[in-house]
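Worked example 3 (structure in, sequence out).
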């Protein structure tokens, strides 16, 4: 180690000696030449006011101009400092703009039945309600306790059904979409059907998305306001059921309107339409653009593995799924990823404590740029206004009863009519913008320099050249004087020898 350090030290010393030798060969200007250089700079510089100090013979005028120049320089320094402080607070402004277009993209709409399971399957596997409730509570960070009623029945059931999969059960025995449950479908004057819907899993089990991102309908755009998607559902209460003890006491369709590129988030955002009602929904499109850090909180570099488009909800799901898979070796239902599905024992023994740990340590946070899931840089939302009317009317009731070969009571208790339209062919852009850009900062600083000192970029280069030349001369001066001072002073050992010699004499 010491051997490697010695060559480095000697190399640095050799380079320094070369620099000293090069500078010592340069002639040092005389005091007269240095004064002339200073005078020439003062009378030729484009920095206003300096030549007035040099040219004036009156001491009073020189003093006045010196005060003016120093005051102007002080004001410039203060103004530039305040501009730089303001710039590095990363200020932003928010602009709202309404864009009118001839055609506008229709959003995706995900529909779910409020009664999630087929009655026959639920009667055969009565514990499924409790199992589903356990899954739902874990995914939404709610505590699981072993003293829940039915917990022992659930564990006994899973012990006797080792290969039982909640996912497969829901997929086979949950709500389905066909010509019996979707009686009518009309999109912008064109007929549509179950084939235009994509299956997705949510907390409501089997759900179906119209105008999915991978669906051909996503390429179509609406060109007339007041027309859009019209649907007539048959929720078939006799065939599908849910457990009222768990809070599922409604009958109808719950749906959420979202971007075709994003996964549906029904919890907290879903709109409900009860049976025997006609729900008229008018929507408008709102785009929000966030600035990246440090002006905003978004991070454009974050990509999701299981979703094509970044969203905070999708990021949180992936974050929780990753930590659970690392700790438990499985992935809970409703969370994305490729892995083994967690059974109830894993939910209780591992998944629930892991989610508590995630919440306690803040492993999956959202909002700021340095959190696990910052806000998305661009997102599209569809604020909705919904109104209801009784469906069907008396005449329509007789017509539908005859057409479907069902009783009028059945029609009232099972049919749901939903209509989704654009209110106007425009969309609103809410955009976060930089309040001060680099070019604006430079323009502001240049304006202050020009206003108070008449200075420009060339003036700054003149001053830098002047300072550099003087610094260069100072270096030469020190290199020439220091060796002479050390050579002229006698070494301390010489004095000691002389004193000893005197004492000996």
């Amino acid at each position: 180690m010491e051997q490697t350090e010695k060559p480095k030290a000697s190399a640095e010393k050799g380079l320094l000696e070369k620099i000293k030798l090069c500078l010592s060969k340069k002639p040092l200007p005389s005091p007269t030449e240095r004064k002339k250089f200073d005078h020439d700079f003062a009378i030729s510089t484009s920095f206003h006011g300096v030549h007035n100090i040099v040219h004036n013979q009156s001491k009073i005028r020189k003093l006045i101009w010196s005060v003016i120049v120093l005051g102007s320089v002080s004001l410039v320094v203060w103004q530039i400092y305040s501009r730089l402080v303001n710039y590095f607070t990363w200020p932003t402004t928010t602009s709202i703009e309404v864009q009118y277009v001839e055609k506008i993209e229709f959003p995706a709409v995900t529909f779910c039945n409020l009664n999630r399971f087929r009655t026959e399957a639920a009667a055969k596997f009565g514990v499924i309600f409790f199992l589903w409730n356990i899954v739902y509570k874990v995914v939404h960070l709610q505590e699981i306790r072993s003293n829940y009623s039915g917990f022992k029945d659930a564990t006994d059931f899973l012990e006797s059904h080792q290969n039982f999969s909640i996912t497969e059960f829901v997929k086979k025995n949950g709500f389905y979409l066909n010509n019996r449950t979707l009686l009518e479908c009309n999109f912008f004057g064109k007929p549509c059907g179950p084939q235009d819907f994509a299956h997705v899993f949510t907390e409501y089990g089997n759900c179906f998305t119209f105008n999915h991102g991978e669906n051909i309908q996503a390429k179509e755009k609406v060109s007339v306001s007041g027309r859009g998607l019209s649907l007539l559902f048959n929720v078939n209460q006799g065939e599908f059921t849910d457990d009222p003890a768990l809070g599922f006491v409604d009958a109808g369709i719950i749906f959420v309107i979202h971007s075709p590129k994003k996964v549906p988030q029904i919890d907290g955002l879903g709109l409900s339409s009860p049976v025997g009602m006609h729900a008229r929904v008018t929507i408008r499109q709102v785009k929000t653009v966030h600035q990246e850090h440090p002006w905003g909180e978004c991070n454009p570099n974050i990509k999701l593995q299981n979703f094509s488009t970044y969203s905070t909800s999708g990021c949180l799901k992936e974050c929780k799924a990753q930590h659970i898979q690392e700790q438990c070796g499985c992935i809970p239902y409703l969370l994305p990823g490729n892995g083994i599905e967690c059974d109830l024992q894993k939910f209780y023994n591992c998944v629930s404590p892991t989610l508590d740990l995630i919440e306690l340590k803040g492993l999956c946070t959202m909002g700021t740029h340095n959190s696990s899931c910052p806000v998305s840089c661009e997102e599209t939302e569809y604020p909705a206004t919904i109104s209801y009317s009784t469906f069907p009317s008396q005449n329509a009731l007789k017509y539908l009863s005859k057409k479907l070969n069902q009783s009028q009571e059945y029609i009232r208790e099972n049919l749901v009519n939903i209509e989704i339209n654009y209110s106007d062919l425009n969309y609103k852009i809410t955009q976060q913008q930089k309040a001060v850009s680099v070019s604006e900062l430079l323009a502001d600083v240049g304006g202050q320099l020009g206003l108070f000192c008449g200075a420009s970029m060339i003036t700054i280069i003149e001053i830098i050249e002047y300072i550099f030349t003087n610094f260069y001369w100072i270096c030469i001066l020190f290199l020439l004087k220091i060796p002479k001072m050390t050579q002229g002073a006698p070494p301390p050992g010489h004095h000691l020898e002389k004193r000893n010699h005197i004492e000996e004499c």
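Notes: Residues 457-488 form the longest helix (32 residues). The radius of gyration is 40 Å.
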